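Appendix C reproduces, verbatim, an entry submitted by the partner laboratory led by Prof. M.T., so that reviewers can inspect both the input and the predicted structure.
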Amino acid sequence: MTAHDDHGTLPSHAATLLNRLEELRGRFAPAGTSHMQHMEYAQRAALLADMLRGSWAAAADTRYAAALVVTRSGLEHHLLDRLLFLANRGVQSWGVKATDVAAEEKRLAELKAGPRPDIARWWHDPRTGDMNVVIRGLFPEASRGRGATVSPYYFRVDRYDPFIIGRRLTGKLARGFADANVEERWAKESQREWYGHFTYERLRANLDVNRLLVPRLGVQVDVHYAFLSAFVHPARRGYDLLYGSTIPSRMGQRDHYCEELVLLYLIAIAAAELKAFGRMSRRKPALPLLDWEAVEREVAEARLATEYFWFLSGDPHQYDRIEEVHTRVWRRWKWGPPDIDWRALPAEGVRYYPNPLERLVRMHHTTGEMSTGLVFQSPFDRSDAAYRW
């Protein structure tokens, strides 16, 4: 990309982190015992790197919509890996009528006290009618829930087969000697597994139960997943945001901001995957890694170079603090110099941004707001930012 545009150190950071994801298996220190899940986790990290490289290649070819579609898959892959690497709790849900809630809670209490000590807690959601039950992770027999553990999702994720033919197509396709009834049953079970645990809403719920998206990372993930999802669907607004609304559009032309956004996503997701893998390696059963301190330094350097992105790491930028002040002023209908100093705002008092690409463009342009007198001084001003839309 640097052959076409200047992105500073971003391409080198992206290349370094992707290389590290691909070589994790080679960092396993010699040990007397190997664990299959560690090898599978390293393979999943390499597969994520392969996907992110596809996004980078599409962006380098100015296929920005395609690049962001692949990026969404990469983000979803990373979120699932967080559960596989680090989760020790799972949520199971089923419908319960309001009149039956008390009886169901009694039944769960008896199970917890007897044959199901892995039941941690439960709650009934009156909005959905679901009883939600938190189940502890998988531990060695007789360990009483302590010591080495494997994520409860480790065995579940492979039960989903996206290539099973569902009932809607049964009888309409040539399947040779396959038993249609057996295929239909497998399709139902596969679908139930995925929708019960691995749709985005279920991923988010399970990540929250395991406290794997704190502090406030859940809001960030929701914003970016929704943003990236806009390019999965062939809606005009998504194309207009990337290529403009004129006819002919800018499609096929190189765009600094779209390229930068893709690079920022690659670094943020790859860095988060490496951090999660390192954290997993310190849990029982431990996985000694060779020269992991060097990888952690590279992750820290990449995050420092991209902290203005404020996704999965970093803090609010000056731009975000000023936007927070403007949000408060607007909602109070109180014009003039604000009574809030944007410099004094605590990080937790700054709300997140809604549109990653629009924010990135505006961060490249120094602006002053007449109603408040606040000036945002861009640290990387570009003359074309004012005319992007």
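Strands lie at 89-95, 119-125, 130-136, 367-368, 375-376. Additional entries are available on request from the coordinating office.
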